[in-house]
Automatic annotation (TrEMBL):
It comes from Lepagella muris. This is RnfABCDGE type electron transport complex subunit D. It comes from the Bacteria.
Amino acid sequence: MNKLTISLSPHIHSSGSIDRCMWNVVIAMMPALAVAIWTFGLPALWVTLVSVTACLLTEWLITRYMLHRPSTLTNGSALITGILLAFNLPSILPLWMVVIGAIIAIGIGKMSFGGLGCNIWNPALVGRVFLLLSFPAAMTTWPSGVESGFDATTGASQQADASSGATLLTHLNAGDTSLADYNLLDMATGNINGSLGEVGGIAILIGLAYLLLTKTITWHIPTAVIASAALFSWAFGGNPLLDIFAGGLLLGAVFMATDYVTSPMTHKGQLIFGAMIGLITIIIRRYGAYPEGMSFAILLMNSFVPLINRYCRPTIFGEKERRAQA
């Protein structure tokens, strides 16, 4: 016999839903996707389409034939994972590697935990890190003929960077951090090299504005990540602007660290979460073996989310009065 469980009032009614939040995120990513296609051309489109298709197909197969549940593709979460995975890949990555990354992202990063709402780590980053550790050469080979964001008249030569496929983080790790050595406008508008989602800082910030206006996310995590990264970049002798716009810091701060499932529930916890991501990212960039630390920083802090939620719980309603009476 089924029992109907009714919670006590008050009841909060809202037009928000999982589907609406997910599709808002998809809409917010469109400017960044457009800049990536404009910068890298059709290869960027193919990487994105293959990543999205593989993610959708993997989730559908697992849901139907292993979990025996109704399809969950309409909520948009698998689509988001596919786009985010593509944003973390070079446009010239072999498509069969893209498929492997998508299968790992959905199959291991998401569905092995039970599906949406149950995963511990961000699925797209699970796929990205798996590919980075398995195929490091392919994951750090960038398309030639794309500018690096450096001014050809000062510092490193744009022409040399375009022929070798260098990225801004290449120069960052070499100690080329002078503001005069790179073109901030190129960094902001997508005229730089890197993964699909690492280009076009302005496009990512437009997506952030949309997410904030639609109240899909709050300002706490993106602000904490960016502010922390800027602070510790300056403290470690780096250039805050270069660290913010180079690599995937903006992408991670806006679209991946803010994932509902793998981020803290309270605003205080979100500020701690974001600040630690910024710190860890800068430490890895300065002293780690990999030029980019954003993915590892987010995954590491994902692991601490249960602990953060435990120690940043809000006061229970009526708890203050009970303590006062005691």
